């Protein structure tokens, strides 16, 4: 076994090293790419700056010559107007050269080609050349070209070494020349003005402009000859006959430079970055044409180019890569050590697991216990998740029935939606687990297909309406109305497919159809159900796996459609369990059509019993539990309070028990005390299973319905509940209407009005007050009347107050009034307040008519409230308060209760409420207790203040 452990260690460690190596290699490659990219960008910026500086030097040169040709002394010398014109011109040339030490010579050459004036830069000073030393330049190319230029024309020569008397001047002096023709005021040609610019300052300035990296800069001409190189021996070799050009040394690089004016290239010689400057183009761009004259003529060598290059040599790249690798090496070593430690721990764990497995193989009973432990874990996990969800959905259900500000109502709705979505996700996961384990039972019973489709329509209609989609269900094929099969599973598949269609459809419609495929034999038919949408569609590559678990249509990081990816997998398994097939037809952007086929036995009309319709009727009717006694057994205080509040809200009287033992003892002492028991399963002291067995052991209690209420949803738990003697199973979180309907069915209780056989008398009409809507929301008529009276007190003067407040305060007032009126069924007031609020938000001043409309609606509503809920009906008379109450004791209790109500904590409120009830009597605190039981803490604060007024106690 030790040798196996050692082998496992090496296998794990080598695998871990391989993963670490792959990860490190990926990271190093990414870091090298990043460092390379950063350096490439930096070199590009450096070369661009250098090229821009070269361009600027050329433009400055043109500006210099244009300035010099306009000197008055030159004009006078050309016209012969002043005897001192030539000395003055020489002085001005000299001063300009001192101010701009980039000139080698400034010359005026006459029309005959002889120099008329020449100033040279000698030993750091400008010096005028004596007349005897002036030369004949008529044979020079630059003179011939510049002399023929029209006014404003410019000639630019190449950058090359200066030659005097046919000999290259030493030390080497690279220069380039800029010449302009000289004309008199009368337009007569008088030679040219030419400036010889030193090339060395230009090249040095280009290099210095980019800082320390300037040492890597090179400049070559149009032939690839080096004007500036990292190796000085390469420079000006084209003139000296000693150098190989860039093109000869790096032919592929030179070809790339000739093909593109700027770019980057990496090869075995390094990383090259370049940008090309064309002098003639730069000169032309610096000489914008006048409004009436033709564009200036710029002449010179058409192929003249300067290319600025930067090279990052292979050894420099290698050093950069080495720094990246070195920075990662230390981390890699630490990771390898950590991996070794983890592999040791894993190997030790595996060694222990191997020993345990050997022991487990010898002990079958221990293996069975482990299996049961896994099942218990799954059940406990479900229980732990569903228990808090039950409280979240239940209390949000109760909050939704209260009078809340608009924003709070929206937030409560979102909590309910999110809770139901989470419940659906959990249900999908557990349903899929149950299907995988073969725990799904397919029923075979009569059902009406048309009624099933109507139920599906009702279930999905709200979701379709919220998305403004048309949900269309086509008629059932003739003769296929009554079938035998599993309507619950068919409905589950249809709801899932329709839900998906609505989710992935932004606009258009969803169509549900049923087609007859063929008659298999007498009374047997095959039907195809289809759900067609106009949504986003599914790509062919996704359709192959669309029914696989955890597969989703939208898997992007910005996906808009959530879900577990289990819905379609569940549909496929259910359809296959029923003996059918399922498929999809779709194209991206053109919608989808999901279909499934099933075989059924067709029944005659009389063969479909009335049980289903009667059950459906019960489910659809409005139910009440008025007068019904229900026991709630749960170890969670939150769940007990929730169940008591919900059941009391529909008229039931509730008895609470903390555990099974307490419930059994109470029931044995009061065998006729309750009509039904809601029993939690997992509880301390005595669980729900054993408690139910003991209840069934008492003959006086054997017929009392016991309903299991549990967060566990495994089939084994449901079966265990039935085996223990429970008659139904409700999963947490539960649907309130379904639970109420179940209780009504098990106790055979219904609303008397619905069970009655006579037509009710017409309800009174209250203008501006929708009593039916208000009672549907509040359910409790007494509480509804109380809040109507509170509305009169809080908002009765709102319309008149609007004329005396500013716009901002008025907007808040109408907003609050709109919400309160809407929650109480005061529809006209709500509409008028909303219309006025919209005008206020727009900053409108013309609100008199809207305020008048609101006043009329409010007056009408107040009159109807006075008829429906007359003043004084909801407040206990002062005589209901116990006589001889100690005012100081009452004041202290009321103050403490106000502080507790402000904390919104029932645990802090209830003891104080009990003390106050003992002091004042039950009837005095009835309104306060009802507000607390419905978690209406603000209403409770109002009730406290009214009690203080009644007792004449000052808080």
UniProtKB/TrEMBL annotation:
Domain HPt: 776-875
EC nos: 2.7.13.3
PROSITE patterns noted in UniProt: HIS_KIN, HPT, RESPONSE_REGULATORY
Catalytic activity: ATP + protein L-histidine = ADP + protein N-phospho-L-histidine
Keyword Cell membrane carried by entry: yes
Primary location: membrane
Entry GO CC: plasma membrane
Residue(s) carrying 4-aspartylphosphate: 680
Positions of post-translational Phosphohistidine modification: 815
Entry-linked SUPFAM superfamilies: ATPase domain of HSP90 chaperone/DNA topoisomerase II/histidine kinase, CheY-like, Histidine-containing phosphotransfer domain, HPT domain, Homodimeric domain of signal transducing histidine kinase, Sensory domain-like
Domain of life: Bacteria
PANTHER family for this protein: HISTIDINE KINASE, HYBRID SIGNAL TRANSDUCTION HISTIDINE KINASE J
Name by which UniProt lists this protein: histidine kinase
